[in-house]
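Dissemination and training. As part of the outreach component of the grant, students in the summer workshop were shown how a complex can be specified as a set of sequence lines and then modelled as a single object. The example used during the hands-on session is reproduced here so that future cohorts can follow it. Participants entered these lines:
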Amino acid sequence: MHTSFTSHNLPASCAALEDLLPAYAEGELAPDERAHVEAHLATCPACQEKIAQYQTLGQELVGLPLACPTPEMRTDFMAMLQREKAALPTAQIAPVAEAQPKVEQEAKVLSLWNRPATRQWLQVAASLLLVAVGVVLGMTLRPRSEQFAASQTRKPSLATQLATAATQPATASDRIQLVSNAPTVNQQNDATVLVLVNTLNTDPNPNVRLAACEALYRLRQDPRVGSALVHSLPLQTDPNVQITLIELLVELRTPEAVPQLERLAQRRDALPVVRQQAEQGIGLLI
Amino acid sequence: MALAPVLLSNYRKTHPFTPNQTLVETTDEALMTQVQADNLDQLVPLFERYHQPLFSFLCRLTGDREVSQDLTQNVFYRVLKYRASYHAGQPFRAWIYQLARNVHTDHWQQNRRPASDVDQIEHTASYGRSALAHAAATDRDAALQEALALLPADQREILVLHRFQGFDYAEIGELLGCTAGAARVKAHRALEALRKIYFS
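and obtained this result:
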């Protein structure tokens, strides 16, 4: 992505120190590293020139003039503030703001706003692993039910299959299988999205709900998906489903999710990790 | 900003409270907590403190004053709109800069240039040289601005945060979701990239 600056035609002694030169020019090197660089600089005019360039650059950057906003900015800001104040008693955000101080005095979640990306991925990976384990166990440990096998041969719509599976005692792994096989391209007026949303909101098994999340994400082109995920958030109690939903809402950049995320971040029955995830999601969406 | 509490405590020593006197806490965080409790007027001092730095931050990112003015306005609008998501004690500066970065990202996504490889053309040395030679002849600052504008957006952002907005590596790391060490390496790479463009 970036223009790589590892030059190919540098002498080996220069190339070895190349990455240290900016830090040297900034005065950020530890004494031993600095001595190392200085020993090289004494014999290398090319690197000396680079250092001089860094220093020139540093001085000129400091000297760059500062742009000033026009006075209209303050006028516009004041007008905006007045509008917001006027809208305060009836504004939609008022209830949230009122609820805030009460909750503030109770248990407080420390914001780990920008947590390392690895942890997020671990959470996603854990969620996916759960689904995968569910699928594999379902396939290996249980014989396919006749109802499911028959439905495979007749190929009714996914909607019908899931609706049937929900009313009859199909195994969770069957339902996961059905949901995971949902098409990735949605036709107009297809009930798949609605059935998946229904599964996401009502299926008793969290692994099936997770699979429904993933299947809905694949259908994200459908405008109904984003709002369905938002509205599903308060209904979910399983932490894996909650975390997956938050991840997907952030991935889909759904700003409408912010109020629900705020509520979730304050929910005392939610696990701390879920509330942190919700807060982080808010940070990324607003 | 960090000085505010110190100054306030000095003020209290020399000006003890009288019954009719109310002294308003003036840290960014205290003001924002007030805003959160629907005392929207407390956003005014925050606007006074931050609109210039945010404007200059956005200006250096976008290179466009008019757009930056709109974006700065939008940042303060979002402060109001999303005030419930601010948490008491959370460093306000980091929070508002995160909002500014999001506003910039959203703007950039909405106004994405058609994929005509303009960036590719801009990064070829010959274009950079001729453009810069011309600019340098007239104005050194303009040449440096031009060089900054030729940097990839993420490298420009790091340099701007570090050089102009006074963020240290730990703060940059927090904003970008990486360690302070990684932020330092990125800042050095950005400086090297700028050196290459400017002196090529």
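Residues 109 and 272 of chain A are 7 Å apart (CA to CA). Students were then asked to discuss how this feature might be tested experimentally.
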